[in-house]
Protein 1
Amino acid sequence: EVQLVESGGGLVQPGRSLRLSCTASGFTFGDYAMSWFRQAPGKGLEWVGFIRSKAYGGTTEYAASVKGRFTISRDDSKSIAYLQMNSLKTEDTAVYYCTRDGRGGSSWYFDYWGQGTLVTVSS
Amino acid sequence: DIQMTQSPSSLSASVGDRVTITCRASQGISNSLAWYQQKPGKAPKLLLYAASRLESGVPSRFSGSGSGTDYTLTISSLQPEDFATYYCQQYYSTPPITFGQGTRLEIK
């Protein structure tokens, strides 16, 4: 059974950093691109960023709203994807979801989602 | 960036009704469209991709159609578990991935 479990969320002050982890199981993690999304309270879905599998170069893409502040990485040996969030702003407050690419490579639709982890940026 | 506009924003319907939700892209997206269902406090769930392909395990009462810029999600006979918020997502021109604003389907 495919499972994605996010962790690392919590309350953080503006300007500080936080790292989220997404631990995957039930599939060959290294074969899949992974993506992060977020959803502010009462709002819609927003794409945050994407990391390709090593077979596709392992490269990353980011939304304009987080580019230069957030970094996605992966450790295929541990089946974990990371979202490093620096210089956090109050508008980054959201539930963050980790997702798996629907076809492995870069289909850019997402067939499995984690349960989400809440990040609250507040002083 | 491609903008996605869903309509209606909210919808009230009864069990057994046929419901259609529309998603319009700001430019043609060649069927590169996915639909997701999200229930309160839960993660989104993939329903369809490539505009009309049903994800494994999704009931056949869900269907998708469309072409060019205009796409629809249809639920043929609403069931109690279908009351949720639905989002469309384009993946024709990425990055970025863009979503519609969501359609909240409520019980009448």
Protein 2
Amino acid sequence: LAKTTQPISMDSYEGQEVNITCSHNNIATNDYITWYQQFPSQGPRFIIQGYKTKVTNEVASLFIPADRKSSTLSLPRVSLSDTAVYYCLVGGNQAGTALIFGKGTTLSVSS
Amino acid sequence: DAGITQSPRYKITETGRQVTLMCHQTWSHSYMFWYRQDLGHGLRLIYYSAAADITDKGEVSDGYVVSRSKTENFPLTLESATRSQTSVYFCASTGGPRQTEAFFGQGTRLTVV
């Protein structure tokens, strides 16, 4: 899987929009970009996945520029419950692909 | 209920003992994974399996053994537990065409004393 680079930590206040950027310079043509969220004492949970341009769901938006060498997870109007670790993964449909997690970005939301 | 479950949730064992962590999923997902998570290290892949009877080592496989005789089960065995294997273990599965959309179990907290 392509190696990813994310900030180690970010701080925000309730109600703000948070953007977490992930760099993946070696992304392959058939790789997708996926973000996971992990709360303390729980397993990671899938948030959003995309290939190019913009993807939006009820939780977040994912922005991917044309060169796909980076991506930005956008969380609108965060609340205290969005405090978690966010992981960016890059991978495709190759048989035997293994999910490799980096250390993620610890987001702390304060009131 | 459909899902992925791990057992036990908590386990305390002694150094040198063999211990097996269980993982069961009800979706018939092809791919299953085992991770360990320690403070400061994030999630590290131990083993993964692409299908029944097909397994591959991950980043930190030493001291661990897996088997996959049935699609729905993926047990992880610590052959001779060491204190360094004290950790939280997560199992995951995925089966869709976009293999990075994985579902995780609730974790097993293992303490080796």
Protein 3
Amino acid sequence: GESVGLHLPTLSVQEGDNSIINCAYSNSASDYFIWYKQESGKGPQFIIDIRSNMDKRQGQRVTVLLNKTVKHLSLQIAATQPGDSAVYFCAGVRGADGLTFGKGTHLIIQP
Amino acid sequence: DGGITQSPKYLFRKEGQNVTLSCEQNLNHDAMYWYRQDPGQGLRLIYYSQIVNDFQKGDIAEGYSVSREKKESFPLTVTSAQKNPTAFYLCASMKGYTGELFFGEGSRLTVL
């Protein structure tokens, strides 16, 4: 079955630096991946998605990279701000059955 | 504004009691989901429903029950059979079959 996981439970970066959060998956059948951001005590919010026929997708200050060869995706956040502090989850789509989530990486922004 | 509303936000329960968590959405989404989140863990799927009057077990359905009598509502009952019910519960709905989930703000259940 699908297994999605993140490499590091905590990532600490200086404000203004770029952040890179990594995620590995095991099920090659997933054709769609999503990154979510969860602030403390709240539900996850959609950040950006990528389909398996793409290698890269850019949003506002965020970029997702997909490497299907090694089953790895990453979320890059440019010029990290205090408001970026949260837990970030990658998720593989199971179609209408929902998503399989990784354990999350807690991004800590240092002033 | 459209969205998903979960209630209550915080709930305390004694061991042996059943408790029902409410989830309402006005997004006109067909599919709804319940996830459980434990500290330092990802989200695990409890139950989901793709259409009214139908629902499917997720990965950790034991000790939980749901109903889907209306499109807008998908309540979750945490029964006394759930051995470790203390957790953060998240309800979500999906826009079509896009895979994108819209989450509520969550309900934190604590068993005393």
Protein 4
Amino acid sequence: SQKIEQNSEALNIQEGKTATLTCNYTNYSPAYLQWYRQDPGRGPVFLLLIRENEKEKRKERLKVTFDTTLKQSLFHITASQPADSATYLCASSGGSYIPTFGRGTSLIVHP
Amino acid sequence: SQTIHQWPATLVQPVGSPLSLECTVEGTSNPNLYWYRQAAGRGLQLLFYSVGIGQISSEVPQNLSASRPQDRQFILSSKKLLLSDSGFYLCAWTEGTAANYGYTFGSGTRLTVV
């Protein structure tokens, strides 16, 4: 089965900087990767989907890259704000059409 | 627009008691429906998914069951809860497979089995 690895340590950055979160996958080369935001006590919210034939996808201050050689996706938030503080989940296809989720990385943006 | 409703928001139940969590989706037809559980510090674990009325696929054999009595209604049940059933339960839907569309999750139910 697919395994998704995200950094379990929280990422602390200063407001205005670019936050970069990493998602590594093993086993299957996924057809797509998804990124979600989850606030405490809430359900995850879908942010972006990137397919295997896409190198990069952007949405406002968000950018996702997909490197099939490194088996990795990077999630960037530019000009980060304290309101961006949350846990960010990566999900990947692989083996079935149901995606596998990582445990998420907590982002803390300090004012 | 589509909305997903999940209730209750929190639940404290004694060991051995039954469970029923309900999820409904509005504004779409024939959605794919999912039940996930998220334990503290762990990733989302898929429990059940359904591609149509009466069609349930189980990913994790345990003392939970799911039913889909109507097109946009998905119910998670247990006859006798275990302590290990505690967690954050999330209902989700997709229009088609999640390969094309991200999940839309409900607000979740925090279940504590005591």
